């Protein structure tokens, strides 16, 4: 019995010695491997820098490169697709971390439900991405564009809690319900671009107040006054497809207007009861219209713009005598034009230059029929 015990003890001692020897060899190998890793690391880093030089850049530089990838603010990239900052989060973990921690990448939100592959995006997907971008934008002012594809009330819902950061707002909507839903203070809003669908089913006038920084407004397809804004503080105004009487009503309130573009629209009930309209600070005026009406001349005859420097106007607005009408306007206003553009022109450019030699830059945009005859 004792002999068996002694043999087993000897066997275990032998195996323990072998195990210790192997463990010593393993430890030596691990140290050797660690030394090899340490030795190859500088060479690998140099190779990485040659093959992937962007990996050597600090995060701040990479973030700046990402920002240059976007269109200039306040223009917005698509929510998805190759041109979206979302694509940057799919490259690698480091890029995703940098992109998600760069609020400026997410501050311009275009809620167009068409992605880069022109595939329709569901309403739920649009709402999710809109909320995600708003949260990633941190405390940045926001530029928002809403197309007329989805339910505007649902699509805007994730952004309404952030409206104290809205800086630029573009809406393409069918009625005034979304306007009524977002009424409130907009302390940072500087520009507001809105187009109502036509025909418009409701006649509610929405009054937006508490807009201390609002200076630029674009109203498109507003044939009736569906919205009231702090007109007196605006410096830039574009009115497209607006009835002339509503245009005049708005312009009478824009005493600080510097730049103005409007596309006049007449309806059969328009009355010739225009009185003097003074825009004391207006420097740029761009008038557009396709229709011809004798009321145009009456409208222009009531306009006074003493600070005007740049004028673009269709010739039929100056009828019956374009040279005489324009001369009367300049004399009445006391302005000194630097630039004159006459569209739909039939009178020769030389005639304008001879009559207005004090204007350094005069150009004609010929009427289509005359352009065709000249080409013949």
UniProtKB/TrEMBL annotation:
Protein name: F-box domain-containing protein
Annotated source species: Favolaschia claudopus
Coiled coil location: 12-39
Lineage: Eukaryota, Fungi, Dikarya, Basidiomycota, Agaricomycotina
Record's keyword terms, sorted: Coiled coil
InterPro entries to which the protein is assigned, alphabetical: F-box-like_dom_sf, F-box_dom, LRR_dom_sf
Residue intervals of the F-box domain: 54-110
SUPFAM superfamilies to which the protein is assigned, alphabetical: F-box domain, RNI-like
